[in-house]
Structures are given as C-alpha cells and as structure tokens.
Amino acid sequence: MALDGIFLYHLKNEIADFAIDSRVDKIHQPSKDEIVINLRSRQGSKKLLLSCNADSARIHFTEFPPENPSKPPMFCLLLRKRLTGAWVTGIEQDNLERILKIRFSGTDELGDKTDYSLIIEIMGKYSNIIFIDKSGKIIDSMKRVDENKSHIREILPGVTYTAPPKQDKLNIFTDDLEVIREKIANSKKGMYKAVMETIKGVSPVICREFECGLTLDEFKKQAQNPTPTVIFTDSPKDFAFMDIKQYDNLAQIRKYDTFSDLLDYFYYERVRLMRIKARSADLFKILTTLQERAVRKAVNRSQELEECKDKETYKLFGDLISANQYRLEKGMPYYDLENYYDENKIVRIPADVMLTPSQNSQKYYKEYRKKQVAESKLNDFIDEANAEAEYFESVIDSLSRAETDSEITAIKAELASQGYIKKANDKKKEQKALKPMHFKTRDGFDVYVGRNNVMNDKLTMKTAKNYDTWFHVQSSAGSHVICETSGMQISDEAIHDCAVIAAYYSKARESSNVAVDYTLVKNIRKPNGAKPGFVIYDTYNTEFATPTIEEVEKLKNE
To answer: Structurally, how many domains does the chain consist of?
Structure first.
C-alpha cells in the first residue's frame, strides 16, 4: 500500500480546509516516529496525526490518537516550545511530490513573531518529519541523517533544508493528456511500468488498474473527482483515491466520505488486527500442537487395531491344539494339524518347546482374548482421538476469524473449561457477554451466527426454536447459523443467503460451490459428553453457495 502523490494532493486540500487559520492547542509525541497536533479553529477542534514510520508514513486527522508516554521526547518539547499557540498559515505540496509543508506563524525564543515550517516526507524507510525556520535552516528532525547515512542529503540541526530530488514524470492535472498518452505508448515496457515511469503521483494499485483496462481519460476524470476507497479482504489491504476494479469479487470495496476518515480507519484497523494476531499467536501454536497430537494418537491406535485383525487365527490355533492334545507331545517346535473349519487342510502352528500342548493352547487363547479386548477399546480410543482432532480444527477455525479481544478471551475460556489450558486468573471486571453476529436475509428473516463453539451450542440448543432453520457447512469446521422463521416457510432466497453466510463463516470460505446442510432445529441432537459445538442430524437438505465478502457485508445487520 502506498500513499501516492495524487492521494496526498486531495488529502492536502482536505486538511487545509480546516487547518488554515487554526491555532495549535497542544502537541504530543506518542512514539519515536509520530506526532499529534491538536488544532482549534472556529469550526471546532481536531487532532492532526503525522507519522514517518517506514511502513505507515502518513498525515491525517484522527479520532483514534495513540496513547502518549508519561514523559514527552525532546523533539516534542521543542515543537511545544515553538509552535504552541502558533497559527497555521498554509499547507503546500510541490507538483504531486509525496512531501507536505505546513507553515506556521509563531514566536521565537525571545517572543518575537516568526515563521516556521513542519515538513513531512512520505518516502517509505526514508520518511521523516523536519522542523525548519523561516530561512530554511533545519531546527531539528525526527530522524537525523548525517553523512554516514546519506552522501546526498544531510538532515541535521543548522543545515539548510533541501528537498529530495524530483521525479521526471508528467502531471495528470497540468500536462497535456496527449503527451502523456504518447509517452506511455512509446514505452518498450509493459503497461504497469510504462504508467509508473510516466505519470507522477500514482501507486502500484493504480498502475494495475491500467493493466485491467483503465483508460487515460477515465483516469484523469477520477483523479479530478476522487473517491476515497479502501480495498478490504480479511483485513484492510490497500487504499486509493479512486474506484478500484481489479479485484472483482475477491475483495470488498469500501468508500469513505473523506481521505482522513479512510486513513484513520485503515491504520487503526490494521493495528488492531495485528494486535489480535499477536495475542492469538500462542493460542494457535497450542491448538496446532493439540490437533497434531490427536491425529498422531488416532493413527497409532489405528495401526494397533490393524494388528488385532488376526485375532481369530489365535483362537483357531487354540482350538486345533486343544482338540488334538492326545497326539501331541511337549518339545515339538510346531504342530501340523488338520483345520476342520477349512476342509481339513493342514495348518502348521508354531509351538513353544518348553510348554505342554495344553499350555500352548492356553497361550493362544490368552493372546486371542487380549486382542479381542484391545480391539474393543481401540475403536473407542480412535473415535475419541478423531473427535478431539475435529474439535481442535473447529476451534482453530473460530480463532482464525476472531476480530476482537473479547472473542479470543471467549475461546480461551472454552479451552480452559475443557481442561486444555489453564484458567486465566483475571481479576479484572468480567467482560460483557459476546452476542452472536446478526444478519438479515434479503426478504427480511433474522439470521444469527455463532462466534465460537460454546456460542454455537447455546445458539442451537437453547436460543433457537424447534421450527427455526439450522445451517452448517458440510463435512468441515464452521459456525452454526440459525434463521429465525417464527414458524413461517423459509424462502429459497433466504436459504441461499443463509448458505452463503454459513459457507463464509467456515473453513471453506475461500472455496466455491460449497455444500451447506440445513434442517429444522428440532432435528439437531447433541450426544452426551460431546465436545462444544458438536451436534448430529439425519434429516437435512443441501444448498450450494459460493461465499463472497461483498455479499456477506450486504446481509450484515450489526
């Protein structure tokens, strides 16, 4: 993802509408590469976030400012000293470069009026926030760059600020469209590289649009009339200043009213999901280990069961020796006996020379009984191990779709209740109970989806009525889906909508033509002692659906 020059151009205009003639109220530095400036104007107050983080350099108004440290860094103290109470007089961008200069009118150390500028350079790992005086000399910067780091441009206090070298590209707003068209056409490179090397201020996602058929005329039209857009899969993937077509149904496209709202949501959501992923990483590791152990147990027990299949041979040997004891003697290494169960064919039976024929017979009977008992127990062990493996698969599926800390906490509580992990000694206030996800079919039926196995059980076995309809992906892990019908006949349209939801909230969400079983709740049974989320049913129908995030989002009612 890249905050390109055209995106920054529109963002600059949006910020300027509020910021110019506003006054600096407070300044904070939440981290080594972020500052937040509280601005106050006749329109109210807003927080302007500037970040020179290598992975997320940006500038925008925010409703989710990061937490501030107890002790402000030196750069923050410097900005507070020079800019608190200052007025914003302008915001500039030079020819779609990814650099913004915010001009301030403030006071110097002696209290005399003077001008300052705060420059944010958005250039990946070379991003920086630089504070300069009215003569252009650098007062300080977030990242100091000496000659050891760069032979081209030093960024140090006292050095005159120089902008990075400009790119030799054409501006879609000011350059002739035919000149741009001709340069792209004459390029010996593919469309992607031709656009990237010709047009100033475009990111990779925009260049790919040209590969998908975007024309230069349509591009200019969208650049002049922007639409803040986020591309969303399981998490925010990318953003742009225009509508994006290249993903088809593989991603959801969300539009925003402002560029600041877009960036605020995009990075807040990305940080939130990264935090959740980090918190769930250990749990994924535990569950994967438990599942692998259960699978190994089932395999090992199956191998042992295979060894029990010859138990009848041991019984036969015992029977034949017992019936022929009168003609057998101790010390014989084997007995050649007629098998009266198989047309008196001769069977050679190994014998222990230290045992009598009677003792050899009892030895075979003992081995037969041992294998018989083992076979019975092993079948139970295999069923138990397979059930455990399926259960862990269902928990992993729930965890992979968890979007909040509360959902992860609920999954941990479920595992603790089953004895797989220790119960957390959480002395904090008990969290508010999670509710199922809520959807509405296109024709108005309410649909509820479990977030974890415990919620699945409660939703299906306690909350749902017998006449409601239950949905679940066939032969795979997934959420229980309940369509509340109030006793009415469920429509084909609602069945399809519910099948899409059930397929999406399952392990098969990336598949197409997913089989989803559905039946009345009264047909669902939970065996005694079964793991959370496990139910059985005999009477059912099957609907096939291909889930897409776009279709699911349209059905959401939260």
So the answer is: 4
Same domain, 453 and 525: yes
Given a contact cutoff of 8 angstroms between Cβ atoms, the answer to whether 29 and 73 are in contact is yes
Q: Which contacts qualify for 509-513: CB closer than 8 Å, 24 or more apart?
A: 509/547, 511/546, 512/546, 513/544, 513/545, 513/546
**What is the CA angle 514-518-522, rounded to 5?**
160
Indicate if the pLDDT at residue 514 is higher than 80: yes
Q: What is the pTM of this model?
A: 0.66
Residue of 264, 290, 239, 351 lying closest to 2 (CA atoms) = 239
pLDDT digits (tens, 9 = 90+) for 139-167: 999 999 998 888 889 999 999 999 999 98
130 and 15 inside one domain: yes
Same domain, 461 and 548: yes
Alpha helix positions (H), 401-441: 405-417
Q: What is the DSSP letter of 507?
A: T
Q: Which domain holds residue 191?
A: 177-257
Beta bridge partners of 101: 92, 119
Q: Please answer whether residues 143 and 124 qualify as being in contact, where contact means their C-beta atoms are separated by less than 8 angstroms.
A: no
Tokens of 469: 């309809």
Angstrom distance (rounded) from CA 298 to CA 387: 10
**259-300 residue pLDDT tens:** 999 999 999 888 888 888 888 888 999 999 999 999 999 999
CB 472 within 8 A of CB 478: yes
Shared-domain flag, residues 471 and 382: no
Q: 373 φ, ψ to 5°?
A: -65, -45
Which domain-ending residue is among 87, 116, 141? Answer: 141
* Domain co-membership, 198 together with 314: no
Residue 526, classified by CB atoms within 10 Å of its CB into exposed (0-12), middle (13-18) or buried (19+), is middle
Question: What's the CATH code of the domain at 69?
Answer: 2.30.310.10
Same domain (yes/no): 198, 103: no
Three-class DSSP labels, 81-95: HHHCCCEEEEEEECC
Residue 269 domain-assigned? Answer: no
